[in-house]
Amino acid sequence: QGPVCTNLGLKPGQRLTVKGKIGPNAKSFVMNLGKDPTLLGLHFNPRFDAHGDVNTIVCNSKKVEEWGAEHRETVFPFQKGGTAEITFGVNQNDVTVHLPGHQFTFPNRLNLSVFDYLDIQGDFTLQSLSWE
Fold first, then answer.
1. Structural domains in the chain?
2. Using one digit for the tens of pLDDT, what is the confidence trace for 10-65?
3. Residue 55 is inside which H or E element, if any?
4. Per-residue confidence at 1, pLDDT binned at 50, 70, 90?
5. CA 75, CA 29: separation in Å to the nearest integer?
């Protein structure tokens, strides 16, 4: 378990940028964004080689113990031992994920009006967090 941030207060129109370093032998890392650990609007999970996925980003949502349908992105701009900058843009109905050279949206399935919670796990070392 890595860093946990609470009371972020991210509302539609705001963006959160996460910068960090990926482990040299990385298998996967996770960034969870939501209301709290039980209500995750976005589970963002780049997998180098984990759970049967190779170089795939798996996204999902979680309500208490219930996961939604997985969403897979095949564009994979991450490299083991490299750095990563990921920006999450909160919109009314979805979250836009900005990656190097690629972006996609993930629906706000839980209809969260504010994203207060972020945790980071796995083969990722947080270097900075910024929001606007």
1. 3-131 (2.60.120.200)
2. 999 999 999 999 999 999 999 999 999 999 999 999 999 999 999 999 999 999 99
3. strand 53-63
4. confident
5. 16
- Give the other-Cβ count within 10 Å of 109's Cβ: 17
> Rounded distance, CA 8 to CA 90, Å?
12
The 10s digit of each residue's pLDDT in 99-114 is 999 999 999 999 999 9
Point out which residues pair with 108 in neighbouring strands: none
Rounded CA separation 99/74 (Å): 12
Token pair for 89: 């843009």
DSSP conformational letter for 108: -
pTM for the full predicted model: 0.97
Half-sphere exposure of residue 4, counting CA atoms within 13 Å on the CB side? Answer: 6
Q: Which long-range contacts (CB under 8 A, 24 or more apart) does 85-89 make?
A: 85/17, 85/18, 85/19, 86/17, 86/18, 86/19, 86/31, 86/44, 87/15, 87/16, 87/17, 87/18, 88/10, 88/15, 88/16, 88/17, 88/18, 88/31, 88/33, 88/42, 88/44, 88/115, 89/14, 89/15
